[in-house]
Amino acid sequence: MNEPIAISQLNDFIFCPYSIYLHNVYMESDESLYHASPQVKGKIAHETIDAPKASAQNRDMVAITVWSETLQIYGKIDIYRASTQTLIERKYILKQIFRGQLYQLWAQYFCMKEMGYDVKRLAFYESSTHKTYPISLPNEQERKELEYFIASFRRFNPSQPITVNPNKCRHCIYCSLCDKTNLGHVYE
Questions:
Q1: What is d(CA 177, CA 181) in angstroms, rounded to the nearest whole number?
Q2: What are the mean pLDDT values of the chain's consecutive 10-residue runs (188 residues total)?
Q3: CB 84 within 8 A of CB 121
Q4: Which of the two ends of the chain, N or C, has the fewest CB atoms closer than 10 A to its terminal CB?
């Protein structure tokens, strides 16, 4: 049996597979060593919704833990709006929707479906602008794409050579701690 993968790591893996390794190395460290202003803002924004709860008034479920035995993934959803059967992923700023963000939302969707929830709609919510961006439900081809991506994640070995992308590296919170580059990040 495979070790379960945290859904939150899917987007990070696309950004840089090596960042997952660095996260595991530094996760017991003081976050101030590597967290830059975007991560601090994101963490503060999530504090308002990260306590698991359900609202009796509108039946929204917030910060509920989800799991898929089939995909061997787990995580937390941001919001499930039962009245409209909508799964919503919150982002502070959403200039563009990246594939990794879609993988996260799709993974949450498949977990919820497997757990018996009726999810008819997906959306991203940009809290800085209060805009909602509807997303199509994943089709069978997209499910296979997600499964292939998860398999790639499982096969990754941090000792493999990686392609250093200076633009990505400069935006990585681990940039100044990474042994693959000597760049500084843009947040210093």
A1: 9
A2: 89 84 74 52 52 60 96 97 96 93 98 98 96 98 98 89 78 76 64
A3: yes
A4: N
